[in-house]
Design a protein that fits this description.
The protein has about 140 residues and is an alpha+beta fold. It is built from three helices and six strands, in the order H-E-E-E-H-E-H-E-E. It folds into two domains: about 30 residues; about 100 residues, Gcn5-related N-acetyltransferase (GNAT) (Aminopeptidase, 3-Layer(aba) Sandwich), CATH 3.40.630.30.
Length: about 140
């Protein structure tokens, strides 16, 4: 009889063994014998000016694709190139790791959308009725 239970620490080693077996089989089916490296890497770059943090960017790298999770700039430093420097530095760094694509979600009417469009990101899909019932967009850029 099938029994669905919520995960708890007692299942840790059993679940790890199951994942190893099941993902290896699924990956061979999807990708063939040479499997991509699916170990995620979490990257945070921090912008500092005269010792103070003025912005940061947080990315998640996984098998050549990068999620730009967040990019924040101090309110008093917006429009001074901090965001651009963080973004460009991050893009260069992830390209050296083998990234070919970067994507993100942002509000469809937010200033951030125009910022990313200015840097070559394009809207790939619209997420209607998303966070807090607002419209968001998925944007991406292919890296060369």
């Amino acid at each position: 009889m099938l029994n669905i239970v919520e995960y708890n620490q007692n299942l840790e080693s059993e679940l790890k063994a199951f994942k190893s077996l099941a993902w290896a089989d699924a990956d061979r089916e999807h990708y063939g014998d040479i499997l991509p490296d699916f170990r995620k890497e979490y990257i945070t770059l921090v912008a500092k000016d005269e010792g103070d943090i003025v912005g940061y960017i947080y990315l998640i790298y996984d098998a050549g694709v990068v999620l730009l999770d967040s990019l924040l700039v101090h309110p008093e430093r917006k429009g001074q190139g901090v965001g651009t420097q963080l973004l460009l530095t991050a893009e260069e760094q992830i390209k050296t790791k083998g990234a070919h694509r970067i994507w993100l979600e942002t509000g469809s009417t937010w200033k951030a959308r125009k910022f990313y469009e200015k840097h070559g990101y394009i809207v790939r899909s619209i997420l209607a009725d998303y966070y807090d019932h607002r419209e968001f967009v998925v944007m991406e850029k292919f890296l060369q």
